[in-house]
């Protein structure tokens, strides 16, 4: 019996040692808190994320590593964990040096032998770099969205539609800027998500070459620039077209109707002047 107990004790110790090594060497942080929010354990990785030594973390309350304005939110997290909430959450914390960090936390309730809540085990992954990148991307998107919306030229991002023979037959407006509406008269909100054939029903008959041009750019990546009298809207357009990826194209255009009218007036005046010179000669 003693030998059996000794064997069980050795196996238990061996098992505990194995899992201790796994936890200590895990690439994600392991953090346990008691039912009042005080730290009872962190592994080396968790301590590194927080900027503390392991022994400094023991007994530290969860509130001491969050911004003061996030204490209420953190307290809500604690209440959720006590109720068995286990969904992954993004968590914002402060390192010992005051640097703001983010980690993705997966909580699991610790239940004692009597079925009572006895704390929370948190598996944490440092996602600070990802969050910083997301913020920079959002800032960049805001900047370029502002430029996009305030451009004087009209811009349309479109997806080409082809038939079974891969021939362009239509295209969908995915995004247009404010100048698009001003220059074409087509309402921005009613244009996005619509096929051009639905917005301008007779376009296939009046502008058959337009589909071929846009289709070639979208399917080959070749850029082009051209002037066209757009019959459905009775305007002249100068259009530059390029592709961002296969099947899509961006058209940047300006309404050059007034320029064309001026050129026509100049042309007629020149012809009239030449005619008078011929008569005078």
UniProtKB/TrEMBL annotation:
SMART domains, sorted: PAS
PAS domain residues: 15-69
CDD domains named among the record's database cross-references = PAS
Q: Which InterPro entries does the entry mention?
A: Biofilm_reg_signaling, PAS, PAS-assoc_C, PAS-like_dom_sf
One Pfam match: PAS_8
- The residue ranges of the PAC domain are 87-139
Could you tell me which NCBIfam families the record lists for this protein?
A: sensory_box
- Return the protein name: PAS domain-containing protein
């Amino acid at each position: 019996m003693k030998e059996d107990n000794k064997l069980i004790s050795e196996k238990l110790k061996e098992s505990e040692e194995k899992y201790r090594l796994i936890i200590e060497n895990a690439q994600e942080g392991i953090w346990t808190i008691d039912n009042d929010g005080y730290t009872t354990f962190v592994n080396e990785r968790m301590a590194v994320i927080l900027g503390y030594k392991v022994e400094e973390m023991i007994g530290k309350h969860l509130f001491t590593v969050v911004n003061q304005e996030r204490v209420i939110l953190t307290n809500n997290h604690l209440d959720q964990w006590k109720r068995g909430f286990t969904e992954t959450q993004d968590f914002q914390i402060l390192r010992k040096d005051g640097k703001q960090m983010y980690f993705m936390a997966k909580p699991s309730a610790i239940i004692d032998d009597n079925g009572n809540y006895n704390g929370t085990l948190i598996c944490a992954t440092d996602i600070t770099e990802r969050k910083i990148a997301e913020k920079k991307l959002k800032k960049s998107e805001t900047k370029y969205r502002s430029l996009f919306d305030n451009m004087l030229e009209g811009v349309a991002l479109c997806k080409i539609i082809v038939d079974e023979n891969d021939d362009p037959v239509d295209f969908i407006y995915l995004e247009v800027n404010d100048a698009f509406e001003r220059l074409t008269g087509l309402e921005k909100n009613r244009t996005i998500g619509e096929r051009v054939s639905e917005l301008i029903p007779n376009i296939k008959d009046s502008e058959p070459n337009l589909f071929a041009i846009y289709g070639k750019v979208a399917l080959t990546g070749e850029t082009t620039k051209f002037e066209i009298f757009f019959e459905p809207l009775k305007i002249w357009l100068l259009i530059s077209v390029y592709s961002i990826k296969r099947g899509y194209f961006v058209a940047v255009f300006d309404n050059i109707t007034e320029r064309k009218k001026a050129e026509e007036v100049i042309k007629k005046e020149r012809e009239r002047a030449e005619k008078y010179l011929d008569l005078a000669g």
